[in-house]
Each structure stands twice: as C-alpha cells, then as structure tokens.
Amino acid sequence: MKYRRVGNSGLKVSEIGLGSWLTYGTAAEKEAADLCIRTAFENGINFFDTSNAYARGEGEKAIGAVLKQYPRSSYVLSTKVYFPMDTGPNDSGLSRKHIMEQCDASLKRLGVDYIDIYYCHRYDNETPLEETLRALDDLVRQGKILYVAVSEWSAAQIADAAGISRRLMLNPLISNQPIYNMFERYIEQEVIPVSEREGICQIVFSPLAQGVLTGKYKPGQSFPADSRGANESINGVIKSYFQDDVLEVVQQLDQIAQELGMALSQLALAWVLRQKNVSSALIGATKPYQIEENVKAVGIELSPDILTQIDGILEQVNNFAPLR
Q1: d(CA 262, CA 125)
Q2: Is the pLDDT of residue 235 over 80?
Q3: How far, CA to CA in Å, does 198 sit from each of 116, 141, 209, 215?
Q4: Domain coverage including residue 102
Q5: How far apart are CA 128 and CA 134, in angstroms?
Q6: Which of 162, 231, 263, 265 has the fewest CB atoms found within 10 Å of its own CB?
C-alpha cells in the first residue's frame, strides 16, 4: 500500500480507501463488514468513510461497531453532515445548529471520541457560508473533528470557502469528495485546478462507476443475479451506465486491461490514481476478494501511450449524461 497526504495537511491516507456499504447492520452485513475491514487492514488500508445519512445513522453504528476492535490511532475515519436526519425544519443542511447536533450524534453512533475528516456532504444554499465554516472551526477547536472537508462542491464554492477561511483565520478545507471515474470527469475542468491552488485534494467516490468498470455487465446480456444491476430498486446513477455504447466501451477497456495483464478494476483505479490531486479512491466491497483485487492497482503506472489509447476509447461516450 502507498499513502498520500490529504491536501496541504500532514494527514496521510491509503491510496485505496473503503467506503461504507453498510445499511441496517444485519447479522450478514456485520459478518461481511468484519471480514472486509480485517482484509482492508491486512492490505494496508487505513481510511474508512461513511456518512450520517447512510440508513439514517445505522451505517455509522455498524461500521463503528466493527472498528471498535482496532486501535483508534490505526485508522482514519470520515463521516458527513447535510442530508435530512428527520422531518423537522432544522434536521438538515449546514446550519450551526444542525452541524453541532449531528457531529455529537455521529460521535455517539460511531463510538469514537473524534472524527478525523468531517465532510459537508453537499453545499447549502440556505445557510451563510461563514456560519458553516465557523461552526466547523469550532468543532476542530473542541477536538471533536480534526479536519474540515466538503463533498461535491463546485470550483466556485470551494474558492469562496477557502477565501473566507483565510480571511477569518479558520482551519482550512483539506479535501473535496466528488464522484470521479472514466465516465464522469467534470472535476478535471475547474475543480482540480482550483483545489490545487488552495491546497485541497480529492478523495473520490465511485471510481469503478458503481461496479460497471469491473466488466461484469455485458451489452445485450442480463445482469449477474448477485449484482447491484440486477436489483430492481437500484438508484438512477447506476442505471445511467446501462447503455449499449457505454457497455461497449467497457469491453474495449477490458481488452486493454487483459493485454496489460491486469483486471479492468485495477486499470480503472490506476487511471484515477494517475491524478496527483487525488489522495484516495474509495471502493465499496462486500467480499474480501474484491479488496484484495482492488489494492493491486496501487503502484501501477500507466504509460502516456496507454493513457492516450484510453482517452481515444472514452471519446466514444463524450455525450454520457449521468442521472442525478
């Protein structure tokens, strides 16, 4: 495993991190979590990401219960705040009230004394940005969180937050958590350049396009029975990948991977990690072998010729429009 600094901070996270796939913490899910987190530690993964919004707090409880068996200093833990946690008018967003209440609630659910990286899960247009940043800064001063971060913020929003933090001498943002994979590259245009200027990294989610970039889904074929795609209640984001032109491109990418002697998932992760501004790629896993396969992407260097070849293939789906 290799580790990268998170923005301009001194914090280091594994190039592959483990996202929270947990829902309600059933016995089967707890067993899967135990096995996957143990495998993650064995393979050098030190970064675990979740959110208060995952199953309205049950995801935090489940991952906290598993991590309890490991020394707190041995891992980096992140969670998030923004999405509704109840039906009241102050039960969502980035107001000082909601942030303070949800941070305390997350600490209790996770069973820890502090959160390493605390993310604003989305931007809140109804709360003054200064109010949000001051509340987060107070949490750092209280020792409840160590670092401040955001998720899926635009370049302009990141720049505004960085400017306010400098002016008020607040603890700066160290990370943005956007979606980023071979099909969704919007951050390359403005978000990464602004982030590099401000000392902010990207910790990306869905680097395998929700499993599409493993090659398991074939054009014109039914989905594997145990796959996310076979679930009728799947979200709209993954459905947007199920287009024949997208799946044909995946097959071409898989051919490149085979010629290089690696799995398509490893090629896709190595492609993401080629970006120096990316500190970690968050994978989701329900089986240990998935982690063991994905961590092999660490250290893979893709030549300029291969990157050019990949870009040529991806140009076939330049009009890809993900559902949101």
Answers
A1: 44
A2: no
A3: 20, 22, 28, 36
A4: 3-209+272-300
A5: 10
A6: 231
Round the CA-based radius of gyration of the chain to a whole number and report it.
Answer: 19
| Rounded Cα gap, residues 235 and 251, in angstroms | 23
129 within a domain of the structure (yes/no): yes
CA diameter of the chain? 56
The identity of residue 256, as a single letter, is I
- Identify whether the C-beta of residue 178 lies closer than 8 Å to the C-beta of residue 154: no
Tell whether 177 is covered by a domain.
yes
130 HSE (CA, 13 A, CB side)? 5
Helix (H, G, I), strand (E, B) or coil at 1: coil
Cβ 173 vs Cβ 129: under 8 Å: no
> What residue type is assigned to position 152 of the chain?
E
- Please list the active-site residues: 54
CA-wise closest residue to 47 among 1, 81, 107, 82: 1
Q: How far apart are CA 68 and CA 53, in angstroms?
A: 21
Residue 30 Cα distances to 62, 109, 119, angstroms: 7, 15, 25
CATH number of the domain to which 181 belongs: 3.20.20.100
Residue 111 lies in a domain: yes
Decide: 181 and 263 in contact? Cβ < 8 Å.
no
Is residue 225 scored above 60 in pLDDT?
Answer: no
